[in-house]
Amino acid sequence: MIKNGLIEAAVDFEANQERFEQAFRLAENHAKYKMPEVHLKYALHLEDENRYKEAEEEFIKANKPQEAINMYEHKQDWHSAL
Fold first, then answer.
1. Most distant CA pair in the chain: distance in Å?
2. pLDDT per residue over 27-47, tens digit each?
3. What does DSSP assign to residue 56?
């Protein structure tokens, strides 16, 4: 149990530091259940960087398609929101 807590903390730390490659690697190898959370954090980062198509793909990988729709609605890109 302690090991999982340390892995979770490490995944969260890497993602919060925007070191997504490391966060994905840790999650993939040691805590697959954290993958959607890392995808979501990465999607939000990409959205902040105005990389909307990439953010959309990450929202979908995070099982949060509504977030992608909301992103496009916020920027009034109705075609992409559909």
1. 47
2. 999 999 999 999 999 999 999
3. H
Question: Residue 69: in which H helix or E strand, if any?
Answer: helix 65-74
Amino acid at 75: K
Provide the pLDDT for residue 1: 46
Q: Based on the number of CB atoms within 10 Å of its own CB, is 7 exposed (0-12), middle (13-18) or buried (19 or more)?
A: middle
What gap in Å lies between CA 5 and CA 11, rounded to an integer?
10
58 near 39, Cβ under 8 Å?
yes
Other residues' Cβ atoms within 10 Å of the Cβ of residue 75: 13
- The H or E element that residue 18 is part of is none
